[in-house]
Write a structure and sequence with these properties.
Length: 420
């Protein structure tokens, strides 16, 4: 396969996943209208976001079995069909209960898409060429959020909040056709088969031994707190700007999307920094970033003046997007051996999924109870402080591994990088 053709199909795949992210965050851009139209509380509104995460978590294990049988390409097409059905049903419903049910349907498609995209990109590129396209793909949530928050400024005033549901439904049909006609995986998916054969040759580690390894759990705590803090911003910030600072809906959505732009800058800068700092010092960098992110996250819902919001959004995006690259870069070292990596990654992603599910339930409840957006500093602050402590524990864990077997650990990391 030519390089141009591989990149073309990768771009189509990435754009397709952006539609799923837009479908997830269309609630954030229209929450004020939904609350007013359906007469629901902030806790109930938060559940409209959490429903996606719950459904995506539930479908993860059976979804991987389905993908193993029919392949990632067909899973994407099925996910697009599910997203279409969920958005059409959501646009037609007039009750909160039915709308919540359709969000669960959308969550199934979201979960399937998140699993299927990486194998497709991996199949299109040789191992040494996957880093850049995979790195671009990791920004799909930021791209989707930025897209829908700005587009909804036009759609909602002219077609109501349901117009955003119709938009995602139409886009899902368009990309179903484009994806089906243009994305063709290498025959037999040789890349995936080779990866499977290599996995069979790896020494197996007991589940109990991997689960007793503290490193992955420290990272899982970090991903959980990150999901709480960043998820609160993604779900509630436009409404906070309207409710507390008096912005109109269009301005609130546009200002909130600034962070998504600077997140791209933050991800690229962090990747550059990681290549310049020795691996054994990445845990120290991780702790430093968590200290800064904790301070920023605590004040994000306590802006004293409208004039501070835009500079804050620019800073927040850069700092926020610094955490996932460092965290995931530490995962192979936390796992210690290639054989431990799959289960360790499962532990880490469990933390992220759990945080995604609880974010809107917990934070929406705090706003309802205290009647103030500033109260979100309590759950966000507690989670971030715990994550910072866990990041501190990670430093002696990593130091002990390097001191005990520095050369062996480096060989393991090199092996992981070759097969990833």
């Amino acid at each position: 396969m030519s390089k141009t053709k591989a990149w073309f199909m990768a771009i189509i795949t990435i754009l397709t996943t952006v539609i799923f992210a837009a479908g997830l965050f269309k609630v954030a851009g229209t929450m004020m209208f939904i609350v007013g139209d359906l007469g629901i509380s902030m806790t109930a509104a938060g559940m409209l976001m959490s429903a996606n995460g719950i459904a995506a978590t539930i479908i993860s294990i059976p979804g991987s079995g389905i993908m193993q049988k029919i392949g990632p390409r067909r899973v994407v097409l099925i996910a697009l069909g599910i997203i279409f059905a969920g958005n059409v049903a959501g646009a037609l419903t007039a009750s909160y209960g039915m709308l919540l049910a359709t969000r669960f349907i959308e969550g199934v498609g979201f979960g399937l898409m998140g699993m299927a995209a990486p194998p497709i990109i991996s199949a299109l590129f040789p191992p040494e060429k996957r880093g850049l396209p995979m790195g671009i793909w990791t920004l799909w949530v930021s791209f989707g959020s930025m897209f829908i928050l700005n587009v909804s400024n036009y759609v909602t005033p002219n077609y109501g909040w349901r117009g955003n549901w119709w938009l995602v439904a139409v886009l899902s049909v368009v990309f179903f056709i484009i994806f089906a006609l243009t994305v063709k995986l290498p025959e037999g998916d040789k890349a995936a088969e080779q990866a499977a054969m290599e996995d069979m040759d790896k020494p197996k580690e007991s589940l109990g031994k991997v689960l007793m390894t503290p490193g992955p759990w420290c990272l899982a705590v970090g991903f959980f707190a990150f999901a709480i803090a960043n998820g609160s911003y993604a779900a509630f910030y436009p409404m906070y700007l309207q409710d507390s600072l008096g912005m109109d809906p269009a301005a609130a959505n546009s200002v909130s999307s600034i962070a998504n732009i600077t997140m791209i800058i933050g991800g690229i800068l962090t990747g550059f920094v990681l290549t310049r700092i020795p691996n054994k010092k990445h845990s120290i960098l991780y702790l430093g970033v968590w200290i800064i992110f904790t301070l920023v996250s605590v004040v994000q819902f306590n802006m004293p003046a409208v004039g501070m919001v835009i500079p804050f959004m620019m800073l927040y995006g850069i700092i926020c997007q610094s955490i996932p690259p460092i965290l995931l870069n530490l995962a192979p070292e936390a796992a210690a051996t290639p054989a431990m990596l799959p289960i360790a990654m499962g532990v880490i992603m469990f933390g992220q999924s759990l945080g995604g599910i609880l974010t809107n339930i917990i934070c929406g409840r705090f706003v309802d109870i205290f009647g103030s957006w500033g109260a979100l500093a309590i759950p966000i602050g507690i989670c971030c402080v715990i994550a910072t402590i866990a990041a501190g524990f990670l430093i002696p864990i990593m130091k002990k591994k390097y001191d005990a077997a520095p050369y062996g650990l480096k060989r393991n990391i090199a092996t992981i990088e070759k097969i990833s």
